[in-house]
Amino acid sequence: MVTPTPLSVSTPGSTPGDAAPIRLGTRASALATTQSGLVARRLEELTGRPVELVRIRTEGDVRTGSLASLGGTGVFVTALREALLDGRCDVAVHSLKDLPTTPAEGLTFVTPERADPRDALCARDGLTLATLPRGARVGTGSPRRAAQIRSARPDLDVVDIRGNVGTRLDRALGPDADLDAVVLAHAGLARLGRTDVISEVLDVDVVSPAPGQGALAVEVRTTDIAAGPDGPRVPDLAEAIHLLDHRPTRLAVLAERSVLARLEAGCAAPVGAYATVSGPALELRAVVAAVDGSEQMSRGGTVRLSQDVAPDVIDDAARALGVSVAEHLLADGAERLAPLSTAVPEKA
Ligand SMILES: NCc1[nH]cc(CCC(=O)O)c1CC(=O)O
């Protein structure tokens, strides 16, 4: 327990405006600001301090090349992390699936409860993966989605697209649509209030989600929240960050991200991983797919989480599950199917 500081005590007549604001760094897209707004409101409730959004442009927002050509490692997060480290903001909110698996020096993050991790097909006329006509054009910028869509429906024409959620939806559903469908994360659509455009939520056995999909990372400077001789440097923030952490989400995404880390794969690699906690069990399934859809391999595993050990021992068990599943995939020849490293080949 952290002792509340005067700042976090709500005294009669005190409003959030009375205390120093918490500056929350976010990308400027509609999805990013919506996600950040959710976290900002929670932080205001938990600390009694106002939260100010600081908009930061990331490389992923500036560059317009295909997602695969950007290389995938941290293009959406590096600028936010720099802003945190040089003090332009105190908290940064990321989509966890955009966060590289290599830890950032001096920073630490928690994961609030995850939303639906599945991908969603948004097709004209309510079409589904099964009912799209032969040769239909399906847009996605994700090699993981492309690989699995092609594997399920080799006859479809998968088209590489980029852009924010609205732009991508327009490609299939707008007045000038040039595609029959696009694939987007359910969580992003849900946060934007756009689940009406979904024609099918794709089962995780058909399209395995990106590691961490649907979850947010709320990142802070380690020094602000780590307990020192006099307690954390920012006690009310430390307490709030601690309360935002959702343990089952944390364990699931630890296992999923450990698959990616052990495969030395980036978020642009055709790798899916999905873990769930049910009772004392953590269950994980991961997929590596050839981008042309010709082949995919899948491995799963389960670990029983002992309740009477230290939290970091349980975290280690979640990571070990991911590593073990990844090693099975490597033993199966996963590297033959897909370029796993972040060095992305020239786009055709
Ligand atoms: N790289 C873009 C991105 N990062 C996170 C989400 C969706 C929200 C989430 O997965 O938490 C999206 C959009 C999409 O994939 O459709």
TrEMBL record:
Keyword Metal-binding recorded: no
Enzyme nomenclature, EC number: 2.5.1.61
Ranges annotated as biased composition (Polar residues): 1-14
Cofactor(s) this protein requires: dipyrromethane
Top-rank taxon, per record: Bacteria
Broadest EC class assigned to this enzyme: transferase
GO CC, alphabetical: cytoplasm
InterPro entries to which the protein is assigned, alphabetical: HemC (IPR000860), Porphobilin_deaminase_cofac_BS (IPR022419), Porphobilin_deaminase_N (IPR022417), Porphobilinogen_deaminase_C (IPR022418), Porphobilinogen_deaminase_C_sf (IPR036803)
Location of region: Disordered: 1-21
Modified residues (S-(dipyrrolylmethanemethyl)cysteine): 267
Reaction equation(s) it catalyzes: 4 porphobilinogen + H2O = hydroxymethylbilane + 4 NH4(+)
Domain Porphobilinogen deaminase C-terminal: from-to ranges: 251-330
UniProt remark on cofactor binding: Binds 1 dipyrromethane group covalently.
Keywords, comma-separated and alphabetical: Porphyrin biosynthesis, Transferase
One of the record's GO molecular function terms: hydroxymethylbilane synthase activity
One GO process term, biological-process aspect: protoporphyrinogen IX biosynthetic process
Porphobilinogen deaminase N-terminal domain mapped to chain residues: 22-224
Protein family: Belongs to the HMBS family.
Role summary: Tetrapolymerization of the monopyrrole PBG into the hydroxymethylbilane pre-uroporphyrinogen in several discrete steps.
Additional facts recorded: The porphobilinogen subunits are added to the dipyrromethane group.
Assembly: Monomer.
Name of protein: Porphobilinogen deaminase
Origin species: Promicromonospora citrea
